[in-house]
Write a structure and sequence with these properties.
The chain is mainly α. It folds into 2 domains: 64 residues, Winged helix-like DNA-binding domain superfamily/Winged helix DNA-binding domain (Arc Repressor Mutant, subunit A); 152 residues, GntR ligand-binding domain-like (Four Helix Bundle (Hemerythrin (Met), subunit A), Up-down Bundle), CATH 1.20.120. 73% of the residues lie in helices and 3% in strands. It is built from 11 helices and 2 strands; from the N terminus they run αααββαααααααα. The protein has a two-stranded antiparallel ribbon. A hairpin with a 5-residue loop joins strand 1 and strand 2. Helix 4 packs parallel to helix 8 and helix 6 runs antiparallel to helix 7. The longest helix has 23 residues. The model has no long low-confidence stretch (mean pLDDT 85).
Amino acid sequence: MFNSVKHTKISEDIANQIKRLIVDGKLKPGDRLPPERELIKQLGVSRPSLREALNALAAMGFLDVRQAKRTFVKSVASKLIEDPLALLIKADTQKIFDLIEVRKAIETWAAFHAAQKASGEDIERLDIIIREMKRAFEEGRSWEKEDADFHLAIAKATHNTIHMHIMSGIYDLLRESMAKIFIGRDQVKKLMNHHQQIFNAIKSRSPEKARQKTLDHLNYVESEVKKSTG
């Protein structure tokens, strides 16, 4: 994935190479970069040059450096979308319906194109997420992360870089909204059934069916939100 850096401005060359992988969608939002030692070996650079490049990319909003020096690709849309939207919804809870309307537009499009473009790896990832959500639910654990992961994995399966970053930008909003609304077992079972139907359509390469099943799912989400908010 990475090439040896031979130019004079080493840290800038490293940063440009990683940025290009993000722009091309080869590194996706949420992907974890290899450990420092491995990156140093692949790039053929020193630790100070690598750290300077990673810090620069983090400052630009491309990377998120967490504890234990774990580095993840960040949604470049996160601060542009997530924080203002969260404040807007807190100020007026009815704005959640506007968010659902937007989700209908972009996620039905995503399901349609995922059914056309998903790789074998994408299909496997969706299958794993569905099984993890079912296991978490059956064991009485929180399932909201897997729910949001499923929608993000569909976005990644479109192989559209901009769409991936937009969906990643509203990832936390997806998790929070579902946790507050879907508290009944029958509600969650229906969600999981919807996920399975969407997955089956994507796996069988049925774009129109994937689009419709996603719309059915979001219409159900909208109806449950209406019940909870009166």
